[in-house]
Each structure stands twice: as structure tokens, then as C-alpha cells.
Amino acid sequence: MAVVLDVDDVLLDWFGGFRAWLWMEHGISPVGISHPAAWDMSDVYPGLGRAKIVGLIRDFNRSDAFGELTPKPYAEDAIAGLRSFYPGERIVALTSSGLHPKTVKLRAHSLERFDLDELHIVPIGDSKADHLERLFEPGSLYVEDNHMHAADGLHIGYDTLIFDYPHNRNFKDERLMRARCWQGAMQHVRHLKRA
Predict the structure, then answer these.
(1) How far apart are CA 190 and CA 195, in angstroms?
(2) Mean pLDDT throughout 23-52?
(3) CA distance 82 to 141
(4) CB 3.0 to 4.6 Å from 177: which of 10, 23, 144, 161, for a disulfide?
(5) How far apart are CA 101 and CA 173, in angstroms?
(6) How are strands ordered across the β-sheet holding 141-144?
(7) Rounded CA separation 90/102 (Å)
(8) SS3 for 40?
């Protein structure tokens, strides 16, 4: 069994870091201050276009700022809680941050504060399904914010929890657990482990 955790906007505040970096490095500020409602962030950065945004994401993920992302509130405590609910099981970070050597090094650095057993990285935008299939055993938990990856987790058989953000609110599945923060996520985990 495994506990598989996405990283960006689950363990670490990726959007907050990206937003600050984009302003400091390029003078580009978002429209509004909320989390994007569109996965490609076109609603908060209108006029940039998808290709430009993807290029900026790649640049950010290779910047020093990417290695200094702050944890989401209670994320570190949640790992300790997950260890108590899943004793002896692997806690794995699975991220699609990209495979550029600097990105990999920065991602590993940013996760040093967390009590993780493994780190798996896939290219930006790639499916995580192959990694999820290899890690899966009945009773495994998957925590994600990308609705496409969450759908893969559900299809494979994971107990899947999605962090609720505007960009994933249209994704509905009765098997899906949804939480706005780690405190809410841990309530779902407690319920799962009692069942």
C-alpha cells in the first residue's frame, strides 16, 4: 500500500510562488488574487496565451524561487498524521514538475522538510498513470489537485482526494473526496480508516 501525494498546490504553494516570481522577474501581475479557475491560468493571465504561459512555467520551475516554495498550511503536520493512519506504508511524492536537471534538484530540495519515502517526477503536463499503477495496492490513498490525474487515480482504484480549487470544481465523481485544506483532508482520512 502507498500514500501518493501530488506536490504543487498540495504540499507546496506553487501558484503563490509562481505569481510572486512572475511579478518580480517579468512585471506581470495576475488579474485578481484568487487561484485560477482555468488549468492553463488563462483567466488570471489573459492575453499571454497558452504557449507563453507554458514557457513561463518551465522557466519558473528552473528558477531558484521554485526550490524555495513554502509549504501549504498544515502539510508537514498532515504527513505525520498520514504516517499514524498508514503505519509502515510508503509516503510518495508524485509530481509533474519536469525533468530538467535543475528542476529535479530544486524539487528535491524543496521537499527536504517533509518526511517522504520516495519522490517520482514526470515531465510537465504528462500523465501520472504509469507511476500510479506501479505504486498501487488496495487501500492506497492518492491526494491531488489536477482533476485529470485524480480521474486516473480513481480509475486505478485509489481512495482519491482532490484539493478543491476553482480549476477542478467542474470535476464530479461520487467516489472522489474533496477538501479545501489539509485539515479537511485529514478528516476524510480519519473517516476512511474508521470504515
Answers:
(1) 9
(2) 90
(3) 10
(4) 161
(5) 37
(6) 118-121, 90-95, 2-5, 141-144, 159-163, 177-179
(7) 26
(8) coil
Output the CA torsion 73→75→80→82 (10° steps): 120
Residue 43 CB: number of other CB atoms within 10 A?
16
pLDDT in tens, 9-28: 999 999 999 999 999 999 99
Give CA–CA dist 35/62, Å, rounded.
22
Question: Binning pLDDT at 50, 70 and 90, where does residue 82 land?
Answer: very high
pTM of the model: 0.95
Q: Shortest CA distance to 110 belongs to which of 195, 3, 10, 12?
A: 12
Question: Residues 76-103: what's their mean pLDDT?
Answer: 97
Q: How confident is the model at residue 39 (pLDDT cuts 50, 70, 90)?
A: confident
Residue type, 145: D
